[in-house]
What does this fold into?
Amino acid sequence: MYKDILVIHTGGTISMQENEEGSVVPGETNPLSIQTETLSSIANIQVIEAFHLPSPHITPRHMLMLKDIIEEHYKKKAFDGVVITHGTDTLEETAYFLDLTVALPISIVVTGAMRSSNEIGYEGLYNLISAVRVACEDASKENGVLVVLNDEIHSAKNVTKTHTSNVSTFQSPQYGPIGIVTKGDIFFHHHPTSREKYSICDVTKRVTLIKAYAGMDSGLLLAIRDLQYDGVIIEALGQGNLPPETVEGIQQLIQSNIPVVLVSRCFNGIAQGVYGYEGGGRNLKELGVIFSHGLNGQKASIKLMVALSKTNKLSEIEKIFTI
Ligand code: ASP
It folds into this structure.
């Protein structure tokens, strides 16, 4: 029995072409639209052209629209899985947003490509076929939102784009892929240990993301307070430390009930309150800074935005970040 798979195209290089000047651009039509027949030998396919956007143009509003499209279609007629094609630049953010917010008994797989449709070595159609095959697997429903490219299956929570141009760009630092795609089969070898879901209907909160560096001071932190952002993520140094000159800004933000969430700018490991010196992680924790348990900066931003649409209580937001 063929599975019912909804394919949602959103744009990105997977749907683009290189023009005569060598620029990669979105064309009038999506080159993947004519491939529906190819996919029909794997599953019953329904295709939706949601957007035709490069992924740097994708906003949380588009992510929410995708969630609504999936839920509305499911309400009309249940299906087994959904495959989303997406630009690779912000693919991990959309995948993680859907992981946190869509609570349906289906598989959700996100894919993309590093080479555009008329370039030699275009891997878009191959990745799309792999993504549909993974979406057809019953086991995929248990593993949260999945990212499938280059014969690997990654969890939305851990995957990140690690290379500007290489087709093996998507990696899960520290954890590795949770499965692989082979010519004949799909194999899972790990399962995510926790799942979390938040029921939200808007994404109006403004969250910003900044990176710490030697010599950083409080200037930008005070500007963030004055600009009335709803939350801030800081990619801190090492195990979760900041230069002492930032402490004043951190205190001002927390006094203004603006959550400050710390991740590490190291791409392996977990930020935690270890050091007790001024600006050290333990000192920051005592000031009310929230530690994010291993998410990268862009994922923590998505989680904070989702958390803020449920509550603005710092203690509750902190609890959400312990999951
Ligand atoms: N800049 C492109 C995008 O994210 C890159 C890609 O799709 O690979 O839309």
Remarks:
- The chain has nine helices and 16 strands.
- The chain has a mean pLDDT of 96.
- The radius of gyration is 20 Å.
- The domain at 4-188 is CATH 3.40.50.1170 (Rossmann fold).
